[in-house]
Design a protein that fits this description.
Chain lengths: 333, 100
């Protein structure tokens, strides 16, 4: 027998016998998803405490019934569980409320990234007629009338009074403390092989290889903080409608990649709430998105996943959720 | 390979070698370059994802570059330009153009 042929045969049989176990296959991709060893630089605790109160206080709205937490509800993973947000006078807004989970690491903010920082973002919803409908001057006057707020602003911003800048800075400081606690996936990344099922491990491999979800949902927050048209079928032009990006085709219908942390607690999905479940999302990607137009990202392609691969992907996505925990503050009167 | 010529491409500029900027792991490398007026910069996508290099200051848009693609631009007027990727906002490159 030709020695070369027998050598080949031998290799093939070894490969067939010892297909790498799913744990070691999955482990190859783990390092990229390691949570940062260090947290964000902490803001002063009294600033965070003021921000927490403001975030939960409906007096920031004209009607007195809408707070930031109405749409960014900790019980719903800092979203609202609705396909599109409902604002002042029960008016339905154009887009779904995104989570503010781990926002301290993110940015630019909003589905279209129109704000660079959390501080810049914070005054937006208060003064937006569709959301909280409060003139900036009115909200400051209303807060100044509350003894507890006057004192808290004085403590945090001595001699400045109750200002929009202080309000934004306190809210942003609080938002930076909204961090998802470790999920089963994190325990697995840390080395606990038993923290994930084999199905979830297979799904994680599909996520990083055949389905290439990791091209955009990258890093421990599972987002590249970037903007893509993935083929959602609606008329919203997303980032492409911003003046800065006129004429850039790739940004037409482009929206910010959402984090996948806690995703199974935030259905329905996408900027318009048009996909009801994680299974539906996987089907959406399997066919390469629903809209056919030149702006759709070349990183979204028909995947032709098997039924097993789809199930495994969903099993994996569910391991990114951690138990809810939030402390709701008492408000000054 | 498409070439974007921002102003007249002078024969003398052909004397300079192209400056090469790669795009890898969603970052430009190097992130800061100095070129002579008229020199060309070649943007190479060495990544696994698509990029879209553009500059408002220098008024060009290379459009979608799939992995492996190369495109060149010449910077003709001295000054400092900000070049960005439209898709990935954290990708920024500073180009300083000096008189030849
Ligand atoms: Cu890019």
């Amino acid at each position: 027998m030709n020695p070369r042929v027998s050598f080949l045969c031998c290799c093939v049989s070894i490969a067939a016998a010892a297909a790498p176990p799913v744990e070691s296959q999955a482990r190859e991709f783990a390092a990229q998803y390691q949570r940062p060893a260090k947290g964000l630089a902490p803001d002063a605790p009294e600033r965070v405490a003021l921000g927490r109160q403001l975030f939960f206080d409906p007096r920031l709205s004209a009607s007195g019934i809408v707070s930031c937490a109405t749409c960014h509800n900790p019980a719903l993973s800092w979203g609202d569980g609705l396909p599109r947000a409902v604002g002042h006078s029960m008016k339905t807004l154009g887009r779904r409320s995104p989570t503010v989970l781990n926002a301290g690491w993110g940015g630019p903010f909003m589905w279209d990234g129109r704000f660079e920082t959390l501080e810049e973002q914070a005054m937006g919803p208060i003064t937006s007629p569709a959301e909280m409908n409060m003139a900036a001057g009115d909200v400051l006057a209303r807060l100044s009338a509350v003894e507890g707020y006057r004192q808290a602003f004085e403590k945090n911003f001595p001699g400045e009074g109750v200002t929009a800048k202080g309000l934004a800075s306190a809210i942003a400081a609080f938002e930076r403390t909204i961090v998802s606690p470790p999920a089963p996936f994190d325990r697995w990344v840390q080395g606990d092989a038993a923290a994930l099922s084999d199905a979830a491990k297979r799904g994680f491999v599909v996520f990083n290889t055949k389905a290439a979800c990791s091209k955009c949902h990258s890093g421990w927050r599972f987002t590249d903080d970037s903007f893509h048209d993935i083929g959602v079928k609606d008329a919203d032009r997303g980032r492409g409608a911003l003046k800065d990006f006129e004429g850039i085709e790739a940004l037409d219908h482009a929206f910010k990649t959402p984090t996948l942390r806690d995703a199974d607690r935030r259905a329905p999905f996408l900027h318009d709430g048009s996909e009801a479940t994680l299974e539906a999302i996987v089907d959406f990607y399997d066919v390469g998105g629903r809209a056919r137009r030149p702006s759709v990202s070349s990183d979204v392609q028909k995947l032709s996943l098997t039924a097993q691969e789809k199930k495994d992907l969903v099993a994996f996505l569910k391991t990114l959720s951690s138990p809810a925990d939030a402390v709701v503050p008492a408000l000054p009167r | 390979m498409k070439t974007f010529v921002l102003a007249g491409l002078l024969a003398s500029t052909l004397a300079f070698a192209d400056e090469v900027v790669t795009q890898k792991d969603k970052a430009f490398a190097p992130g800061d370059i100095t070129v002579k007026a008229g020199q060309r910069v070649t943007f190479v996508n060495d990544d696994t994802v698509a990029h879209n290099v553009f500059s408002k200051d220098a008024k060009f848009n290379l459009k979608i570059q799939p992995p492996g693609d190369k495109q060149s631009v010449s910077f003709d007027a001295p000054g400092t330009y900000e070049v960005r990727c439209a898709i990935h906002p954290k990708m920024t490159l500073k180009v300083k153009v000096v008189a030849p």
